Amino acid sequence: MLILSIKTDQPEAELALFEDDTQLAIEKWLAHRQLAETIHPKIADLLKGQDKDWSNLQAIVCFKGPGSFTGLRIGLSVANALAFGLKLPIIAADGDTWAADGIKSLLVGKTDKVAMPEYGAPVHITAQKK
């Protein structure tokens, strides 16, 4: 099973490709404020480097948090959109072993319908200024 992993909770984003639980390739880059602009080309390059394309993906595992609100929102939005569009199982995991735990869950048939973020703190909504 070809699995894409996505971790976007920090300014340094991380993508990896796995064949089952064996890592094939990894890409880390300082995405910071360019994450939304760079994540899709980085995924395409990662796939191309393994002589694969979008149609070869079979599952997605993503880091759900805690972490940056915007980083998690972008990464999980991309993961959910790819899973929906390509009809792939998706799972969100946390902790230091998030990728291994998520892959293990996928390999035994578990999946999330939608990967939801865990920001690690309550949302702070400010009052509207007049």
Question: Layout of helices and strands, plus pairs?
Answer:
Layout: E1 2-7, E2 12-19, E3 22-30, H1 35-49, E4 59-63, H2 69-86, E5 90-93, H3 98-107
Parallel strand pairs: 1-4, 4-5
Antiparallel strand pairs: 1-2, 2-3
Helix pairs in contact: 1-2
Explain how this protein is built.
The protein is of the alpha/beta class and 130 residues long. The protein has a single domain, classed as Nucleotidyltransferase, domain 5, CATH 3.30.420.40. It contains three helices and five strands. A five-stranded mixed β-sheet has the order 3-2-1-4-5, sandwiched between helices. Helix 1 (35-49) packs across helix 2 (69-86). The longest helix is centred in the middle third of the chain and has 18 residues, at 69-86.
